[in-house]
Design a protein that fits this description.
Layout: E1 2-4, E2 9-11, H1 21-27, E3 35-39, H2 43-55, E4 59-63, H3 66-75, E5 80-84, H4 92-101, E6 107-112, H5 116-128, E7 132-138, E8 141-142, H6 143-163
Parallel strand pairs: 3-4, 3-5, 5-6, 6-7
Antiparallel strand pairs: 1-2, 1-8
């Protein structure tokens, strides 16, 4: 399945039908389920990411605005974070500043439909501000690439918790 912001459509099989070892890896995650907070102004993409991450065993909170994301973050600090770079009313660069100011230690996934150089620059900025930018995805992306990103992020959370 590919997720595309421009066309607002999913192609291929649905997330619940995805046959990937990655889903099985996350399904064995210890309880309680890890909290994943994600924001994308395109409700369709936010919903698709919510379904895939939920099928992977995460407790997902998807929002469609930077303001709602910030509010949710402050209500309950998530274990993993993801956001789109380009959103009206608060873009990903502002969210990088916000998360750095909050002292966010969670693994972070950045997605965008922008050029890969923009994505790389945003990831670099986040790392320079002390954020744990683990994954980046360019839109459109496949369910399998999203699952792989979530597996890597989940592994980092597990290692961090064991190290405490």
């Amino acid at each position: 399945m590919a997720v595309s912001k421009e066309h607002g459509e999913l192609s291929g099989h649905c997330a619940s039908e995805a046959s990937s070892v990655a889903v099985g890896d996350l399904a064995d995650a210890p309880v309680p389920r890890r909290r994943f907070l994600f924001v994308d102004d395109n409700a369709f993409i936010a919903s698709a990411i919510q379904r895939v991450a939920g099928a992977c065993g995460f407790d997902v909170r998807a929002t469609t605005s930077a303001a709602a994301f910030r509010e949710r973050y402050r209500e309950e600090v998530p274990d993993l974070v993801g956001f789109d770079l380009a959103m009206p009313g608060g873009d990903g660069i502002e969210l990088i500043r916000f998360l750095a100011g909050e002292g966010c230690r969670a693994p972070i996934l950045i997605v965008t439909g922008h050029d890969r150089r923009v994505l790389a620059s945003a990831a670099r900025l986040g790392r320079e501000r002390g954020l744990n930018i683990v994954e980046t995805l360019s839109k459109p992306f496949s369910v399998e690439s999203l699952q792989a990103a979530l597996v890597r992020m989940n592994e980092i959370v597990a290692v961090d918790r064991r190290g405490r």
